[in-house]
Amino acid sequence: MRTLGLSxxxxxxxxxxxxxxxPGTAEPDESKIAGTWYIxxxxxxxxxxxxxxxxxxxxxxxxxxQGDGDLKVSFAIPTPGRCMKFESIYKPTGSLGEYYSSxxxxxxxxxxxxxxxxxxxxxxxxxxxxxxxxxxxxxxxTQWVRPKIKLLFKRLAKLNGFTDETIWILPRQxxxxxGEP
Length: 181
Prior knowledge:
Layout: H1 2-12, E1 16-19, E2 22-28, H2 30-33, E3 35-44, H3 47-52, E4 59-65, E5 71-79, E6 82-92, E7 98-101, E8 107-114, E9 119-128, E10 131-140, H4 147-159, E11 167-169
């Protein structure tokens, strides 16, 4: 369940792209965030994720921008023994590049970095059982991520307090995809 909630949050952050010259500011560019993304790397402080990180594989997310600015995010997440598919709606919080969803737990997502076309890095927080869990995810338009982008993700993860033990690159998979029964 934690994976699903955090996955949803990360997808919402895809809606923003960092402006050239000011990497701390994001500007909406809905034409570039809509569509299918692969979740190719993660960093997490969640004990449940860390215990099963060797079993996790790439997930898929599809983002659709609604007329009111909300994001409809569909996920396909491989879990041991099945393919979990679900949708969530994320609403803008009023802060630039940040969205909130109460589906499957309270989640907030924020764009950390993007090139506006091939990758984005999203930071998510989730409240669960009185704890705040943190996750950083690398989204890619393809299953193959350039080494330079993987290194960037690892650097950003460390800047956000994650260690080598809490950062991992997800292996590709073909058995759990969006658009398939």
